[in-house]
Design brief:
- The complex is a heterodimer of chains A (488) and B (320).
- Chain A is of the alpha+beta class and 488 residues long.
- Helix content of chain A is 42%, strand content 18%.
- Chain A has 16 helices and 16 strands.
- In chain A, the strands form five sheets. A five-stranded antiparallel β-sheet of chain A has the order 3-2-1-15-16.
- Chain B is of the alpha/beta class.
- Chain B starts with 5 loop residues before the first strand and ends in a 15-residue tail after the last helix.
- In chain B, the strands form three sheets. Chain B has a five-stranded parallel β-sheet, with helices on both faces. A two-stranded antiparallel ribbon of chain B has the order 4-8. In chain B, strands 6-7 form a two-stranded antiparallel ribbon.
- Chain B folds into two domains: 196 residues, Rossmann fold (3-Layer(aba) Sandwich), CATH 3.40.50.700; 112 residues, no CATH class.
- The chains are: A alpha+beta (488), B alpha/beta (320).
- At the A-B interface, helix 1, strand 3, helix 2, helix 7 and strand 9 of A face helix 1, helix 4, helix 6, helix 9 and helix 12 of B.
């Protein structure tokens, strides 16, 4: 009988994620399971609620990205009422979402990704955290990060009334418009975020792209997957965060599907495994065939890199320049180099900031026509936005009284469930070989692999790198023969 | 000196992480707190393992802030462990305090939830009959998942709770206030609510209020409300009269009725039942037909009146 290694990230991840690695008799990896032990069941308990209330409930799916759920849910509800929407509301919602993206991407890049990039993957775990980053780049930058994150939150509060658990959207629009005075206050805030996004791009160039070992790790490490990519694009084929059509390409860039939100269930399907509460989405037409790579793979991923992979361009000039720079280094589009998610996040930061500045200057933003009253209930709607971590799908149905009769949700991290399983196994297979006892480096590398996806079910999302406690227990013949522990 | 510092833990059960975000949103206070207290266990930011907690003597922690409801066996196990290790246990946020939004699941059965999520929805694999199980044989051993309970419990249903910080999420200022009271040893008597106000939300709502007579309730998409006048007087079901204040009335400020996220004010046992009574008293109906017509704009009383408190209500769950 082979051995089992349980990588049990004790704290948040123990509650919400656990990795079991099985070794064959020779000591090589035979199998790998990343388990998600949590379920809350929103799809069922929104049934019976008034349909217009659902966007005020689904914000509690995630305290990190409540606005993504509020907006996807509101778009689905708009469609349940026939789709009438005040044009100004579309722009107000998008402006809010730009600020939400900036807030989240700033937090992720500086607190979570930068420690790997700036301090380097080989730095001591105790140094690979936000304090280590500040030590390298200077305290002033640490101050700017906190300020930029607070600015992005402030913009959300001015537009939507609450920083967290927003309740601003109503069928046909938003519950509150924007005054000229408020707009005047927003402009300098938006401009300062654009400045910060530019600064972040320069920092990345200087600190990361100057280091050949990093470029090597991105391009040739065990972190690459040959799978499909999914994301929203606008009519010109540019990356879209708030609205667009969904495009999926295979690992070589050939288009597999391009569809309107309402068609999602025709293209996508979800596979269930008995050992995890999280489902595995795949391309329905190709059928579930397990965790396989290749041009004919039914597996795809989502998130920042996937969005850049499916798009022809960025819609704003500086982000487009940054996008070209990224693919020039990665060598080709699409790229399966999962660590490049972090870099893609910076390109998107520039896009969100440029777009926000443009929207703040849009004359229609202060229109008093920020909502229309719907005149009919049509009973079904699918709302899709790009959440920070990937394409977010909310699908609702309601009866003629507007009572919710059904809901189906596929969230960003769920799309990445299979890719995370695959990249974890890849890293484990490379590091655990016959005759080589795995050490703490294994835990670091596995953590780095799944952190690229910024998965939202685990503390991997929010723990400081190097601070996430990981324990690997080696089992043989039913007992623990060794414990590897990485103490932060 | 380390021995003199307070030992504090933060944990989340069935929750969204919003309460932890509220702690992080105290910004520089987190650093001040770290100077006054050892955060020995905080899954999102600080190292700590169940095994380390197990190894501590009982009562070794000065306080644990527990956010999230109790949805599965693991949530309950950790609640018992932290209770044993902590001198004070604080329910942080409305999920821990009242069951919160995850508690709306008590309107459905466990089987209905599993069926909807894994067997019967538009994107599920054709013909799927697999539902996750607590014990799955794999490669000669077993993979385990925590058991998904038949209903949601609030924290005080499974362990004793000393203080409650309500809100979904509590404002960062209130989280800071609660933490500061602990650090400065100025906590009120056990059983108290920390941070939030002690009056109904209406007291701090900036809208103009007059006699509350409602001809009929309306759905939020039926009217564009006057921005100055009480939303309830305009027919929008608002939870303000039976909701604890302290949030700053941010939802009514943007023309959205309160949904009760701070739970009941002092003296109110069942927020939802009290709200239904308050709403009914505003209706001027002379016949049963008139009353029914007036309530047509309030088609899901459970989902509005008990939005955040179903597991804490006298009802606790829907009975069928």
């Amino acid at each position: 009988m082979g051995r089992t290694i349980t990588i049990d990230p004790i704290t948040r991840l123990e509650g919400h994620g656990r990795i079991e690695i099985f070794l064959d008799d020779a000591g090589g990896v035979s199998d790998c399971y990343f388990q998600i032990p949590e379920l809350r069941g929103f799809e069922r308990f929104v049934v019976g609620r008034a349909i217009e209330e659902v966007p005020r409930i689904v914000t509690r799916i995630c305290g990190v990205c409540p606005a993504s759920h509020h907006l996807a849910g509101s778009k689905a509800v708009d469609a349940c009422f026939g789709g009438a929407l005040a044009p100004a509301a579309v722009k107000l919602r998008e402006a809010y979402y730009c600020a939400h993206f900036l807030h989240s991407h700033i937090a992720h890049f500086y607190a979570l990704a930068a420690p790997d990039f700036i301090c380097g993957p080989d730095a001591e775990p105790g140094e690979r955290n936000i304090l280590g980053v500040v030590a390298r780049v200077g305290l002033e930058i640490g101050r700017q990060v906190i300020e930029a994150r607070a600015t992005a939150q402030e913009i959300q509060a001015v537009l939507g009334g609450r920083k967290r658990n927003v309740c601003w959207c109503v069928p046909g629009g938003v519950s509150k418009g924007l005054t000229e005075e408020e707009r005047a206050g927003l402009r300098p805030l938006a401009v300062s975020l654009l400045e910060f996004a530019r600064f972040s791009r320069r920092l990345f160039k200087d600190a990361v792209l100057g280091q050949s070992r990093w470029v090597e790790a991105i391009l040739r490490g065990p972190y690459a997957l040959a799978i499909g990519h999914m994301g929203l694009v606008d009519a010109d084929g540019a990356v879209a965060h708030y609205d667009g059509t969904v495009r999926i390409v295979d690992c070589e860039g050939s288009e597999i599907a391009r569809f309107a939100p309402a068609d999602y269930a025709r293209i996508l399907a979800e596979h269930v495994e008995p050992w995890t509460y999280l489902k595995f989405p795949y391309l329905r037409a190709r059928g579930w065939r397990g965790f396989v790579e290749g041009t004919d793979s039914p597996i795809y991923g989502a998130g920042p890199l996937a969005r850049l992979n499916v798009a022809e361009r960025m819609a704003t000039p500086e982000a487009e320049e940054a996008r070209q720079e990224l693919f020039a280094t990665l060598g080709a589009r699409p790229s399966g180099a999962m660590l490049a998610h972090h870099w893609a996040r910076l390109v998107e930061m520039l896009y969100a900031a440029e777009r926000l500045v443009a929207l703040v200057d849009d004359p229609e933003l202060t229109s008093p026509e920020f909502r229309v009253l719907p005149d009919r209930i049509t009973g079904e709607g699918v709302g899709i936005v790009e959440a920070m971590r990937g394409t977010l799908i909310h699908h609702y149905t309601c009866d003629e009284q507007g009572i919710c009769t059904g809901a189906n949700l596929i969230v960003g991290t769920t799309h990445n469930n299979a890719p995370i399983q695959m990249v974890t196994k890849k890293v484990a297979t490379q590091l655990i070989r016959p005759g080589v006892e795995p050490d703490a480096a294994l835990l670091d590398r596995i953590e780095m692999a799944f952190r690229a996806f910024d998965p939202c079910y685990s503390c991997a999302t929010h723990a400081l790198p190097g601070a996430m406690p990981l324990v690997a227990r080696l089992h043989q013949g039913g007992r623990v023969v060794r414990e590897i522990r990485r103490d932060a | 000196m380390n021995g003199d510092k307070l030992k504090v833990a933060l944990y989340w059960g069935a929750a969204c992480g919003g309460c932890d975000m509220a702690v992080l949103d105290t910004h520089e206070y987190v650093l001040e707190l770290a100077a006054e207290a050892d955060l020995v266990f905080w899954p999102i930011a600080v190292d700590g393992k169940y095994a380390d907690l197990e190894a501590l003597p009982d009562g070794a922690l000065d306080a644990t802030f527990f956010s999230g409801a109790v949805r599965n066996a693991e949530n309950e196990d950790v609640a018992h462990l932290l209770r044993r290790k902590s001198r004070l246990l604080v329910a942080l946020g409305s999920c821990a305090a009242f069951g919160g939004i995850p508690g709306l699941a008590n309107a459905a059965t466990r089987e209905e939830i599993l069926e909807r999520v894994y067997l019967d929805n538009p994107s599920i694999e054709e013909g799927n009959r697999t539902v996750p199980r607590t014990h799955v044989p794999v490669n000669g051993t077993e993979l385990e998942l925590p058991s998904f309970y038949p209903r949601v419990w609030r924290l005080s249903d499974v362990v004793g709770v000393d203080y409650v910080v309500p809100g979904c999420p509590p404002t960062p200022e209130q989280v800071r206030e609660a933490l500061a009271a602990l650090v400065s040893n100025t906590l009120p008597a056990p059983g108290s609510v920390l941070g939030a106000g002690d009056k109904a939300l209406c007291e701090e709502c900036r809208r103009r209020k007059d006699e509350k007579h409602v001809a009929r309730f309306v759905r939020p998409w039926e009217i564009v409300p006057d921005p100055e006048i009480c939303l309830l007087e305009q027919g929008l079901p608002c939870a303000g009269p039976a909701t604890r204040g302290g949030c700053g009335a941010r939802c009514p400020d943007i023309n959205q009725a309160c949904r009760g996220c701070y739970g009941p004010p002092p003296g109110v046992l069942d927020q939802g039942a009290t709200l239904v009574g308050a709403w009914a008293s505003m209706i001027e109906a002379k016949t049963a037909e008139e009353a029914e017509a007036a309530f047509a704009g309030l088609p899901d009383v459970l989902g509005i009146a008990h939005r955040f408190t179903l597991p804490a209500s006298l009802l606790q769950r829907s009975c069928r």
